[in-house]
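Write out the 3D structure for:
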Amino acid sequence: MDKRRSKILLVLGIVILLFSLYVLSFDPFVAFVGIAVALVSLFNAYQAHKGIKPKFIRNHEEKEEEKLKEEREQNTFYNRQRQRNLEKRQEQAKKQDEREKEDKFNL
């Protein structure tokens, strides 16, 4: 994915740069803005090529990891609670069986 993103950003940066150089003869301000955008695109292409993810993507991934971690903790808590409840029910069922056996013997 990073290699593909790198190629797309590289082509986009080059196209914007060439278009900005063409526009330079008409409107220098627009051309300089275009050159700045092209440089940013080329810088992002370089980062993608090196495998460095943009900050907003890293932040998003960290938030997703935190959510997953909290969800796992919640699940383990609920699983422990279910296990305890199951054990209690089993103990109650054993006690009930014992009571029934005692009642049969007492009759």
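The mean pLDDT is 84.
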